[in-house]
Amino acid sequence: MDLIDIGANLTHESFQHDFEEVIETSRDAGIVHIILTGTDLPTSEAARNMAIERPGFFSSTVGFHPHIAKDVSNTDLEAQAVLARAPEVVAIGETGLDYNRNFSPAADQLRVFERQMDLAVETRKPVFLHQRDAHEDFVRILRKYRPQLSGGVVHCFTDSAQALEDYLELDMYIGITGWICDERRGLELQALVKRIPDDRLLIETDAPYLLPRSLEPKPKNRRNEPRFLTEVLRVVARCREQPQTEVARHSCQNSRQLFGIGN
Asked: Does the reported pTM lie above 0.85?
């Protein structure tokens, strides 16, 4: 059973000491492709370099996370625009809005978000989106750009039924992480995931973050890894009342369709 992890932060320092082992165990778990997430210029460059080294197994994104928007200069955005045109880069992002923590002022988040949406239109590459507690502004911008976009995914979806409807009306893909495995805060998502059409569902780990709470046994280091995508798959399939093989097949097809990844 093949699986594609559409979002893993393998440039994170926690993977430096055992990177090759992480890749090997991922393959053993059935992972056939991983999209490496860029959240700033250094991670975007590192992810692209990793994708060059393993072109059949890795692709990458290039983006600026909303948390760091206040520090993103025009020079940074110009460098991103050059990097985004590399063939290994399959999406623009992680980008979007996060009013939950407000590490950057809303004005800076909006400025950087729109510039990255412009870049997605220019490069004709899909967007890899982040939204938390900012749905009104987020969907307003998404509606503005959607007619020109080649597509996109709302990564790590954790929002309301209304937000889900809005994104599906805009023909967006929905990314589900280990958040759904949380018996405390994931209950609403467990109920909502069955509303996602087969042709709009994607699964991801967001490693090293969002270790599935339902995973047994849990790793001693509490670090999430791509191999644990199998647990996300298991819980998603249970909540959707579908066989795991069916969910895996649809999510792989959708990943290849959206990001243009080969078999």
From this structure: yes
